[in-house]
Design a protein that fits this description.
- This protein is of the alpha+beta class and 338 residues long.
- It has twelve helices and twelve strands.
- It has a seven-stranded antiparallel sheet, with helices on one face. Strands 10-11-12 form a three-stranded parallel sheet.
- α2 (23-31) packs across α3 (35-47) and α11 (298-311) packs across α12.
- The longest helix is centred in the first third of the chain and has 21 residues, at 98-118.
- The radius of gyration is 23 Å and the shape is globular.
- The relative contact order is 0.08.
């Protein structure tokens, strides 16, 4: 009987994300038991602060309970990310597996340091949301905004170009003290990584391999807010992400070409290609990820796969996740290479 109770509990935990409204009836059906019997298991999970219920009986929903921990700091010369990690943040995460804790230490340190040294703000806050399955962390400052800072420092045309440069990596407004690797690696270690700043959102979803860039004044945040999410049971390690991109040398990058699109505009021009190609000579290998791109123009393809590669014969550029239309245009360009 005890083994069955364990199985019911595990079933509820595994299926709750997709059955928040009908988890009781769904579980009852699977184990040939009454809803009332399942409710006893749900109550025990609530007593243990693992899940919580909202709504009336007929419209009741169950979710994993998130326990928030909030910290706020004044940005001063003495504020240090390693001290804050050891003194305040680590205690909420040290129960997690070693590989998960290692990812959180890296990502917190990189993003918190960015707020201290680049935001030009006067304060920064950290909110940690812990639940049974995952942990979320939000780091917010009230500074000039990451997109504004990079765009103005490097005289870029628009915020979409900033998003592309961030995705490439090695982009920093302080080359003397920083390598520009923090956001690049952090966004790829986590399950979900979001930057919200002055109406701009930049999102990477690990499982879907999706990159999303949006400009929307309704989602405006005056400063920079970075939201990070990671499963408490992930098998990922920070070392495997470092290894994937060349570890110490950081000689490999993957660029999501979908970030070039805007308001239904196509990816067709040489100017777009040149913006995409900026700084690529600093990498040994470049993978252009065409996931989500329906088509590209001849001039765009020619600039990358003929003009640029002729000018940089040692460049190694590899298209990946391209559909047939994109593959055909790339092949056509390579076949006319002179």
């Amino acid at each position: 009987m005890r083994l069955k109770n364990v199985a019911i509990r595990q079933f509820i935990i595994e299926n709750l994300p997709n059955h928040e409204s009908d988890i009781a009836s769904f579980t009852a059906k699977m184990f040939s038991m009454t809803v009332q019997g399942v409710n006893r298991h749900l109550k025990k999970l609530m007593d243990e602060n693992i899940i919580e219920a909202t709504g009336k009986t007929k419209g009741r929903k169950y979710n994993f309970k998130e326990i928030p921990c909030v910290y706020r700091y004044e940005i001063t010369d003495s504020l240090s990310e390693d001290v804050i990690w050891r003194r305040d943040i680590k205690q909420h995460l040290e129960h997690l597996p070693t590989n998960v804790l290692g990812i959180w230490e890296h990502c917190f340190s990189e993003i918190f340091n960015n707020a201290i040294e680049h935001s030009r703000g006067i304060s920064v806050s950290v909110i940690i949301y812990k639940s049974f399955l995952k942990t979320r962390m939000i780091i917010s400052d009230n500074g000039i905004g990451i997109f504004n800072n990079i765009r103005d420092t490097f005289h870029l045309q628009d915020n979409r170009e900033v998003a592309i440069e961030l995705a490439k990596g090695k982009m920093t407004t302080d080359k003397k003290n920083h390598t520009g690797e923090g956001i690049f690696f952090s966004s790829r270690m986590l399950d979900r990584f979001l930057i919200l700043s002055y109406g701009i959102s930049w999102i990477h979803d690990f499982d879907k391999a999706d990159w999303i860039f949006e400009e929307n004044s309704e989602s405006e945040y005056n400063g920079t807010r970075v939201a990070m999410e990671l499963s408490n049971a992930t098998q990922r390690t920070k070392q495997e992400i470092f290894d994937k991109y060349g570890e110490q040398a950081f000689n490999t990058t993957i660029i999501p070409v979908i970030l070039m699109t805007s308001n239904g505009d196509g990816i067709v021009s040489r100017s777009q290609a040149r913006r995409l190609l900026a700084r690529l000579e600093t990498f040994d290998k470049v993978f252009l990820d065409f996931r989500g791109v329906d088509s590209i123009g001849q001039a765009f393809a020619d600039e990358i796969f003929r003009v640029f590669t002729n000018a940089h014969p040692d460049a190694k550029i590899f298209p990946v996740n391209a559909n047939k239309a994109v593959e055909s245009m790339i092949l056509r360009t390579k076949n006319t290479r002179l």
